[in-house]
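From the shared-data thread, chain only:
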Amino acid sequence: NVRSVFESEDGTLWIAAENNSARLAQSGTFEQLITEGSHTNLPMDGLCGYEDRQGRVWFGTPNGGLYYWQSGKFAKVADPALDSTLIFAIAEDHEGQIWLGTIDGLQCLDSNLRPKTTLSLDAEVRALLVDEHDVLWIGTVGRGLGRYRNGTCEFLQRADGLGSDYVNALAEDREGSLWIGTRGGISQLTDVKFPTFPTTEHPAVRDAFAVGASHQGGVWIGTRSGVTYFNPASGTRKTYGRETGIPSSYIKRVFEASNGDLYAVCFMNMLAILSPDKKLLAVHTNSDLIVGMAE
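Structure, as tokens:
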């Protein structure tokens, strides 16, 4: 059960997975990640991963604490509170503070990795993003999207135009717009405006399971009816579904590569690759769930 995949600055591919976290170096060397002092000798049970500006690679675990990889080995953050929670998201702000989204809410470590009192949330935090203005965006389950800066947090909810109060994913595009994947569609936040757009051309399709930036501007959206390209400048959207040859229209993850090829995780464990003109190039089936992609 792979939960997160990301690439660090040195080109290493990091995989956070259920009892099978690992890294793949550019040389092709594959190494399972086992923490020091592990009594099971099993690889780390990773829920999420993240690389900070110092090059430390972070892993959040379910009831196992918070770890970071530096200089070829793991170190564990000495905070007992993190040993009894599920860590779903990690982000670093411009001051070097590490923010954690957990099943119990929001937690923070200062730049010296000491626990810091912060905003008390009575909601599960599933997604975090620090934007170019050092604003911390908080995707919650049930309370909508939090905007936290200088000790003050404001919430944007469905009543304000957000697609749903249940936020699944956050992404910032090259124009500085914030894209929010929710249970009720994909929302765009730009210049303090908060428009929410239909996920696809079909009004009945509302869930936005995944959001990925496109190199041509706009975003790709994973939905239950296929993968949708949305151009906010023109307001147009185009959905590519089963007619392209993809094995399932339920798209859990979507990623556009630098060459324009589109990678879509269909249902749970099938990866479809579409050419820039949206012709099916290949379909690969994995024995485990596919939940992340990186280049």
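The longest strand covers residues 2-7.
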